[in-house]
Amino acid sequence: MKVHRLIFLLLLFAYQVCCKTYVHIDYSLTVEVPSEYSVELLGRAFLMETNQMEPSFRVAVSVEPVIGKYSCSLQVFLGDVKVWNSGHYSHFYTSDKCALELTKDGDLRLKGSNDRIGWRTGTSGQGVERLEILKTGNLVLVDALNRIKWQSFNFPTDVMLWGQRLNVATRLTSFPTNSTAFYSFEIQHSKIALYLSSGKWNYSYWEFQPTKSRNITFIELGSKGLEIFNDKYKKIAQISSFGTQFQPLRFLALGNKTGNMGLYFYSPEKRSFEAAFQALNTTCDLPLACRPYGICTLSNACSCIRLLTAKKGAGSDCNGGFSEGFCDKGQPEMLELSGVSSVLRTAPKRVNVSKETCENLCLQDCKCAAALYSAGKDGTSSRECFTYGLVSGVKQVERGTGLTFMVKVPNGTRVSHGKSNVKKWVLVMVGVIDGLIILLVLGGLGYCLVQRRRRRRRNMLASDNNNT
């Protein structure tokens, strides 16, 4: 209780006196870490703030609960939105204390118990005079001549601020909760794209390419959109905000829940940030819209691929029967799903091959979980085979697209008479949610009609009684 109160006092103190935009060398600030873990506890001491209209940028030393431990980090906020975090890629876990220190020789450090250093800028001996937060949100270490020796803009996390530039081969990343996969927003010479990465597999699920095959050198977030430039500093394309929006854009963010990329402005009326553009506008286009082995249906609801086996019957989870993998598990088989595709794309495993060859490519790789075969519309495009190490981003599509999605399933999915019921079972499960929704809608309409007729009959009886 005493420790909690100390953290509260630190927060209160920081809010009251935090008005400077800089601190000089030989500065330190400590946030106490409680001895008992609590998921509800958040210690945050603000040390700097920009002098500008709401929302302003603020810099804080933070202690946050992360999976049974406390993480110590230096963070930058725009209003209440975290736009930079020193612990984005690697948490610094500590106990007892979380201390920020700007040493006399110009090194910015985070230290824990026993003065253990968990993060540093490595700027000792470079003439650093102060740590400063600029009006752009860039956290910088500068010398006596205001020359920047270190800046947070060079270490992007999951947010890109107005005026910030990102060069080719740079990326933003975000990490979904309770998942080994992660999202990335990447700048490449030919395009900018969103990716889902899992192990050795890397899948794109959205991309933007400048016209006329022009190469990209860097991108910059402007007031009206994301601007794309070539090596001659000439703007060659722009992703603009949609609708009528009078406020300038403040940041680009890669969401850690959905993996969607958005451009955001601040609404003074709502006193919150609103999306002016989103790369993906429908639920089923999100890479993890449903659980693994789930299918996003045409009604934007999630269904499951469930196997019917002779030993276990129907699995209760979406990944029932799949979770153990296929390496050293005997010979599996491929299950073809009709009217189903994937939003995830990767480089083709093979081109100009048959569907049977595509099946075998996945069967021969024990880490392959699914395959997508593209015959091309009307059979005129090249025949391509894509393989996947996970079954995610699967969605129901209209027929006639020339796509065939196949899932690897274990042996033992056959029942009596040697006939497999898997395909029939899966097709039923894909459409079951849509069918239930239709039944609910029709049932609701029928109920309303019945109730209306009953009310009309009661009114007629009441009218007859009054007349008599």
UniProtKB/TrEMBL annotation:
<dbReference type="Pfam" id="PF01453">
    <property type="entry name" value="B_lectin"/>
</dbReference>
<dbReference type="InterPro" id="IPR051343">
    <property type="entry name" value="G-type_lectin_kinases/EP1-like"/>
</dbReference>
<feature type="domain" description="Bulb-type lectin">
    <location>
        <begin position="44"/>
        <end position="154"/>
    </location>
</feature>
<keyword id="KW-0812">Transmembrane</keyword>
<dbReference type="InterPro" id="IPR035446">
    <property type="entry name" value="SLSG/EP1"/>
</dbReference>
<dbReference type="InterPro" id="IPR001480">
    <property type="entry name" value="Bulb-type_lectin_dom"/>
</dbReference>
<keyword id="KW-0325">Glycoprotein</keyword>
<keyword id="KW-0472">Membrane</keyword>
<dbReference type="InterPro" id="IPR036426">
    <property type="entry name" value="Bulb-type_lectin_dom_sf"/>
</dbReference>
<keyword id="KW-1133">Transmembrane helix</keyword>
<protein>
    <submittedName>
        <fullName>D-MANNOSE BINDING LECTIN PROTEIN WITH APPLE-LIKE CARBOHYDRATE-BINDING DOMAIN-CONTAINING PROTEIN</fullName>
    </submittedName>
</protein>
<keyword id="KW-0732">Signal</keyword>
<keyword id="KW-1015">Disulfide bond</keyword>
<feature type="transmembrane region" description="Helical">
    <location>
        <begin position="425"/>
        <end position="450"/>
    </location>
</feature>
<dbReference type="InterPro" id="IPR003609">
    <property type="entry name" value="Pan_app"/>
</dbReference>
<feature type="signal peptide">
    <location>
        <begin position="1"/>
        <end position="19"/>
    </location>
</feature>
